[in-house]
Specification:
The protein is α+β, with helices and mostly antiparallel strands and about 450 residues long. The chain has one domain: FAD/NAD(P)-binding domain (3-Layer(bba) Sandwich). Helix content is about 30%, strand content about 30%. The protein has 12 helices and 23 strands. Strands 5, 6, 13, 14, 15, 16, 17, 18 and 21 form a 9-stranded mixed β-sheet that branches. Strand 15 and strand 16 form a beta hairpin. The two termini are about 40 Å apart.
């Protein structure tokens, strides 16, 4: 342990407590283990989850939920040494087709135009979790599961994190330097800790399911704007074991208002496929199967201040946005890297990990990324949400113009690839702190 860590962490049970062991929390724990191995990290997870109890093999499920990973996220996982394993079951997005239902406007994006094999990837959440856990098994990260963080109180030289253990209901406490809340926005923990949250409803729900089509996806992601809201179809899987032939499965994200959602959910599978066919069209042939349908309300969540002395919110606990551009997890991932960078600076400058000045620096850095990403997503929602003929015609010209105006299509593509801003580069402790620039 370094002198700075000893100075601020001596006598404490752990240095960092991560509330939540999902994709965000597990990725943060692994990054800390890679970059700052001298720190003691404890993950508190409500489910009986542990790196020591993993299935021996992975069997893909048709109904598994998936995540869109931007090219910038692939770079982060490569730096963590995780991509070679993760890519075994990640489907590349080599093309993106953006269209407006019932109108002539459309544009196409291609990875080769950016000198990349893919614009992004689609990965099964369960597979991502298994890959993270297998790597974490080789680290010194400690787990408290099943357990949950119920409260936190400041102390003269750190904080006390109070836990409730799921199996017994007993309570215990951990003394630490900093608490990172990575348990999403539905646990209520951020509200218990006094964070002020604003939520703006889009008045819509996202229905998510996996579908099978008669035509192969050709590694193309479709973003289809309709009068009822946007829908996305993301390519999944391969046509054979070689990993080179496109498959027939896609991950659907379908935006619906309350009445339309109830109507779709009441239908048998054949009826759902017929409704989907009507809204999406025939670019992938006939929809032949739809899996288990899940849905959730769409909101734009803003936390006015995502940091307090000794506490920081990350991922969906700090912000949620519309899934129209598939940027939610990618934004969270960049935020995690920015936070680790501030932890490293604190360690090198002999500061406590929960020092409010460092946490505020993280907040300001990540807020710029968050605001840009929200503007990008909300602009698409506002632009394609209007039904007025003049606005509809203007957006069609805009879609066509992306392919005609020099630099416009390149900018749009880099935004979709999660490379429109700046992010921290993962380096060992002691290296100079810099930013890796991704210029638009």
């Amino acid at each position: 342990m370094t002198a700075s860590a000893i100075a601020h962490g001596a006598g404490l049970d752990t240095d960092i407590v991560i509330a939540g062991g999902g994709l965000a929390g597990a990725t943060l724990a692994l990054t800390l283990a890679r970059v700052l191995p001298q720190l003691r990290v404890t993950v508190v997870e409500a489910f009986p989850l542990s790196p020591e109890a993993l299935p021996e093999s992975y069997q893909p499920s048709y109904d598994a939920r998936s995540t869109a990973l931007a090219w910038g996220s692939r770079q982060i996982f490569e730096e963590l040494g995780l991509w070679s394993r993760l890519s075994e079951h990640a489907t590349p997005i080599r093309h993106i087709h953006v269209s407006d239902r019932g109108r002539f406007g459309a544009t196409h994006l291609h990875g080769k135009d950016h000198r990349q094999d893919a614009l992004g990837y689609v990965a099964d959440n369960r597979w991502m979790g298994l890959c993270l856990m297998r790597e974490l098994r080789q680290t010194d990260v400690r787990w408290q599961a099943p357990a949950e963080v119920v409260s936190m109180s400041p102390q003269p030289h750190g904080i006390t994190v109070n836990l409730r253990h799921g199996e017994t209901g007993t309570e215990s406490a951990l003394s630490a330097q900093c608490l990172v809340v990575a348990d999403g926005g539905r646990s209520g923990l951020r509200e218990k800790l006094g964070f002020r949250v604003d939520q703006q409803s889009y008045g819509q729900h996202a229905l998510v399911a996996n579908v099978t089509t008669s035509e192969r996806h050709q590694f193309t992601a479709y973003e289809r704007f309709t009068d009822e809201g946007p829908m996305a179809l993301l390519p999944q899987g391969f046509g054979n074991s070689s990993g080179k032939t496109a498959g027939n499965t896609a991950a659907l994200v379908w935006t619906l208002d309350d009445a339309a959602l109830d109507e779709v959910l009441a239908l048998e599978d054949a009826g759902k496929c017929q409704q989907l066919q009507q809204r999406f069209g025939w670019r992938l042939g006939r929809f032949t199967r739809i899996g288990q349908c899940n849905h959730y309300p769409l909101t734009l969540t803003t936390v006015h201040e995502s940091v307090q002395p000794g506490v920081v919110l990350v991922g969906n606990a700090a912000h949620t946005l519309h899934p129209v551009a598939g940027q939610g997890f990618n934004l969270a991932l960049r935020g995690l890297m920015a936070l680790v960078e501030q932890f490293r600076i604190a360690t090198e400058q002999n500061m406590g990990l929960g020092d409010l000045r460092r946490l505020r620096h993280y907040q300001e850095t990540h807020r710029q990324d968050w605001q840009q990403t929200v503007r990008f997503s909300d602009t698409l929602i506002q632009l394609f949400g209007h039904k007025l003929p003049a606005i509809a015609a203007a957006r069609d010209l805009g879609l066509i113009g992306l392919g005609l105006v020099p630099g416009a299509k390149h900018w749009f593509g880099r935004k979709a690839m999660g490379m429109g801003g700046r992010r921290a580069v993962i380096r060992p402790t002691g290296a100079a702190v810099e930013d890796k620039a991704h210029h638009e």
